[in-house]
UniProtKB/TrEMBL annotation:
SUPFAM superfamilies: alpha/beta-Hydrolases
Species the sequence originates in: Pseudomonas weihenstephanensis
Gene Ontology molecular function, alphabetical: hydrolase activity
Gene3D superfamilies: alpha/beta hydrolase
The organism's taxonomic lineage, starting at the top: Bacteria, Pseudomonadati, Pseudomonadota, Gammaproteobacteria, Pseudomonadales
Annotated protein name in UniProt: Alpha/beta hydrolase
Keyword line: Hydrolase
InterPro entries: AB_hydrolase_1, AB_hydrolase_fold, Carboxylesterase_BioH
Domain (AB hydrolase-1): residue spans on this chain: 29-257
Pfam families given in the database record: Abhydrolase_1
């Protein structure tokens, strides 16, 4: 797949690297929202699962990936500013669907609370509104590593916690990426962590009460950091919400093994395009349940 690459000017403040994977057979477009410090490359598996059923848009935040060379990094971005970038991209690409991963869920839910007129459905994966004990410990260790400038600690931290179920090759890529970020990227990460810890948790539930579109929450059954049981707190805020826990899978879902990838693909396309799903899902269904209600 060869993307259409563009660097877009957002509100005269940020230059955003975007990749549009267009499909001749697709009728709708989905935009994907990265997790903390991740880049477009992090969505390689998800892209394959969604294309060609959908046109797929990937982008890098102003401080990360292929966007960072186009920006000056004079100020740190708040969650609200990142949400404004996302809202502009939704309009530009006429995106009807949205999918976020991990801390990208915070940006996605903030954007959805602004009721973007084009978005019809959204998927929030590996995210919960609660900073539980495991997540608090992860964030605190991350804060200490950032304060000390310990790149090795930071590289190992993700693999030892959120990424504990990833294949060895993915862990190598993770370590190399996280331990070699630019100084402004570490500063941005530190800023996000300080905001979360100083607030004593997340403030996403209040914003979520304004979200009326169907929202699917997907969590790994083995994920103790953004637990499926915690994600169910959104049921009180979002009336049109659904919950899936993918069995035998941790935080990184479709990246962890082939079965998880297939199960995630089925869940995504069944939710986003139930009438067309049979045309795109390949292979025989499993004889064991792939997921359960969280």
């Amino acid at each position: 797949m060869t993307p259409e690459i563009a660097v877009l000017d957002i509100q005269g403040q940020y230059r955003i690297h975007t990749e549009l994977y267009r499909s001749e057979t697709a009728q709708s477009t989905i935009i994907l929202v990265n997790g903390s410090m991740a880049t477009t490359a992090s969505f390689a598996k998800t892209l394959k699962n969604l294309h060609p059923a959908l046109n797929v848009v990937l982008y890098d935040q102003p401080y990360a990936g292929q966007s960072k060379q186009h920006n000056r990094h004079q100020t740190l971005l708040t969650n609200e500013l990142e949400a404004q970038v996302l809202l502009e991209l939704i309009e530009h690409f006429d995106a009807r669907f949205l999918l976020s991963f991990s801390w990208g869920g915070l940006v996605a839910l903030t954007a959805l609370a602004n009721t973007p007129r084009r978005i019809e459905k959204a998927v929030i994966s590996s995210f919960s509104p609660r900073v539980n004990h495991a997540m608090y410990d992860y964030l605190e260790r991350g804060r200490q590593g950032l304060a000390a400038g310990n790149r090795t600690l930071l590289g190992n931290l993700v693999n030892d916690t959120l990424g504990k179920h990833l294949p060895h090759l993915f862990k190598r890529f993770n370590f190399r990426h996280i331990s070699n970020l630019a100084d402004h990227e570490y500063a941005q990460m530190h800023f996000h962590i300080e905001q979360l810890l100083s607030a004593g948790g997340l403030n996403t539930l209040g914003d979520a009460y304004g979200i009326a579109i169907p929202v699917l929450f997907i969590n790994g059954a083995w994920d103790e950091y953004t637990a499926a049981s915690d994600a169910r707190h959104f049921a009180h805020a979002i009336a049109n919400s659904q919950f899936i826990a993918v069995q035998n899978t941790g935080h990184f879902l479709d990246m962890e093994h082939a079965s998880a990838s297939q199960h995630c693909k089925n869940a995504l396309l069944n939710f986003l395009q139930p009438m067309a799903v049979s045309a795109f899902i390949q292979g025989k269904p499993s004889h064991t349940p792939c997921c359960m209600s969280a």
